[in-house]
TrEMBL record:
InterPro entries documented for this protein: MFS_trans_sf
Organism: Pseudomonas oryzihabitans
Key word ATP-binding present: no
This protein's name: MFS transporter
GO CC terms: plasma membrane
Signal peptide: none
């Protein structure tokens, strides 16, 4: 594998580590301070909804056209701002907390869409095939994510949110500093354009647009599940069981280990319905088990199932693009679905579990219901297999 490709996946892993560590800290601290699942859901929803709105209303700010080097430098600037907020003591105020959450949401969207587009362009340039590209991307992301989740929960349990911000900001600034002194990115070779026949097999061309839309919806429902996990599991652990932030960080980390195993083990494609069904079972055990070791241990299955689904669906998305422009559009479109549904999940499930609806005790039932919705979305993609790119 070329050095540039290895560096790219290394950057993905470091970015995921910093973002996940900070996200875990913000979620746990927000629920601990407010004590309200609705306020937590609103905060998480707004932090993801703002970048979605920016993408819809200001298409010129499309981050998929940024090079990886520029994304890393941008991340360094944003984390520098978060460091200043923490040093000024503003994380102890509601306004500072909201600003930090919004900055993390914007950064997460821009990073995700830019890295997904860059990953697809590597396939178009002939540097990797679609299967290896999807697996290496998820391997790098999950390696960083489960490390960040575990470290974020541990630091917050032993220290404070400010200390956590200092640590992740230092990592982001160090990465940006290295990127600043390295030579600018080289333009990749001209993409190898696949023929229309390979992009849209016989009998599927007419439903290509619908198939890709359903694929984006299924990927978005994975984001919905992640958003529900980040909102409901802290509620279950903190309010219903009285467990610690380290327990939540460990559960998230174990889920990341499962996702990592899904990325590196050679599982055959096409069994997404099986994994979606097992995911519902795992959601039930996670949400309802009163035993910490069972609840946290089942996260291995949940992480494995989620990432198996995501890799399979992402590989189909990569194969749907035949040009760099289509890769940009598909990466941006799938990111919009993912971010929008990930932002809608905290708002929706937070409302259902608030005192205005069913109360915190409903959190386990709602979480299992979210798994059922994801299963339904995956079933739709199997009924209408996406092969062609979105209609121009």
């Amino acid at each position: 594998m070329k050095a540039a490709v290895i560096r790219f996946y290394g950057v993905v892993a470091l970015s995921a580590l910093a973002d996940m560590a900070l996200l875990i800290g913000l979620i746990w601290a927000a629920l601990r301070v407010t004590g309200s699942p609705l306020l937590l859901g609103t905060l998480l929803g707004v932090s993801a909804l703002i970048p979605f709105s920016i993408r819809r209303n200001f298409p010129a700010l499309d981050s998929t056209r940024l090079s990886v080097r520029r994304v890393v430098l941008l991340r360094g600037g944003v984390y520098g701002g978060l460091l200043l907020i923490a040093l000024a003591g503003l994380l102890q105020t509601l306004a500072g907390f909201v600003v930090a959450a919004v900055l993390v949401g914007v950064l997460n969207y821009m990073t995700t869409s830019a890295y997904e587009a860059a990953n697809t362009k590597q396939v178009l340039a002939g540097l990797l095939d679609s299967q290896r590209s999807a697996r290496w991307m998820q391997t790098a992301f999950q390696l960083g994510a489960f490390s960040g989740a575990f470290l974020g929960g541990l630091v917050l349990d032993r220290a404070s949110l400010d200390v956590l911000v200092y640590a992740v900001a230092g990592l982001a600034l160090l990465t940006a500093g290295v990127a600043a002194v390295l030579p600018a990115d080289r333009q990749p070779p001209a993409p190898v354009v696949r023929s229309d026949a390979s992009a849209a097999p016989d009998g599927l061309g007419d439903m290509g647009g619908r198939g890709v839309t359903l694929l984006c919806l299924a990927l978005g429902m994975i984001g919905f599940h992640i958003g529900a996990f980040n909102t409901l599991i802290p509620l279950v652990y903190q309010r219903l069981h009285g467990w610690s932030s380290a327990d939540f960080g460990l559960a998230s980390g174990i889920a990341g280990v499962g996702a990592f195993l899904a990325a590196i083990l050679p599982w055959p494609r096409g069994r997404v319905l099986l994994w979606a069904g097992l995911l519902v079972v795992g959601d039930y055990l996670l949400a309802f088990s009163p035993l910490p070791w069972v609840s946290m241990g089942i996260c291995l299955l949940i992480g494995f199932g989620i990432n198996t689904l995501r890799i399979d669906l992402r590989q189909q998305m990569i194969e749907a693009a035949t040009t760099t422009e289509q890769a940009n559009r598909l990466a941006a479109t799938s990111s919009v679905y993912f971010i929008f549904l990930q932002s809608a999940a905290p708002l929706g499930v937070g409302l259902l579990c608030s005192e205005y609806a069913f109360g915190p005790g409903a959190a386990p039932h709602v979480f299992v219901g979210v798994g059922g919705l994801l299963l339904g979305a995956v079933l739709l993609t199997r009924m209408h297999r996406p092969r062609a790119v979105l209609a121009q």
